[in-house]
C-alpha cells in the first residue's frame, strides 16, 4: 500500500508543480487553491508512504515521479522543447526510480 501512496503523492507533486505555472505568482485564485491542495495531498501521502518505506528511496522516487511528470506536462501544455537529450535524461531518472524500487530492503 505504501508504494501506491508514494505513486499518488508523486502525481500530486506533478499537479502542484504544473499548477504553480497557472497561479501566475499566486495572483489567480482557483489555480492557487488547486496548487495548495495538491501540495498538501502530496506531502501527506508522502508521509504515509514513509511509515514503511526507507526515507532515501521514498524521497528519490517521489521527486523522480514529479520531475518526469513535470517535464512531460511542460512539453505538452507549455510547448517546451522536446529534445532527444531531454528524453534521455528522463530515461536516466526512470532507470534510477526502478533501480531504487528493486533494491529497496
Automatic annotation (TrEMBL):
<feature type="transmembrane region" description="Helical">
    <location>
        <begin position="29"/>
        <end position="50"/>
    </location>
</feature>
<dbReference type="GO" id="GO:0005886">
    <property type="term" value="C:plasma membrane"/>
</dbReference>
<protein>
    <recommendedName>
        <fullName>Guanidinium exporter</fullName>
    </recommendedName>
</protein>
<feature type="transmembrane region" description="Helical">
    <location>
        <begin position="59"/>
        <end position="78"/>
    </location>
</feature>
<feature type="transmembrane region" description="Helical">
    <location>
        <begin position="84"/>
        <end position="103"/>
    </location>
</feature>
<dbReference type="GO" id="GO:1990961">
    <property type="term" value="P:xenobiotic detoxification by transmembrane export across the plasma membrane"/>
</dbReference>
<dbReference type="InterPro" id="IPR037185">
    <property type="entry name" value="EmrE-like"/>
</dbReference>
<keyword id="KW-0812">Transmembrane</keyword>
<keyword id="KW-0813">Transport</keyword>
<keyword id="KW-1003">Cell membrane</keyword>
<keyword id="KW-1133">Transmembrane helix</keyword>
<dbReference type="InterPro" id="IPR045324">
    <property type="entry name" value="Small_multidrug_res"/>
</dbReference>
<keyword id="KW-0472">Membrane</keyword>
<dbReference type="GO" id="GO:0022857">
    <property type="term" value="F:transmembrane transporter activity"/>
</dbReference>
<dbReference type="InterPro" id="IPR000390">
    <property type="entry name" value="Small_drug/metabolite_transptr"/>
</dbReference>
<comment type="similarity">
    <text>Belongs to the drug/metabolite transporter (DMT) superfamily. Small multidrug resistance (SMR) (TC 2.A.7.1) family. Gdx/SugE subfamily.</text>
</comment>
<dbReference type="Pfam" id="PF00893">
    <property type="entry name" value="Multi_Drug_Res"/>
</dbReference>
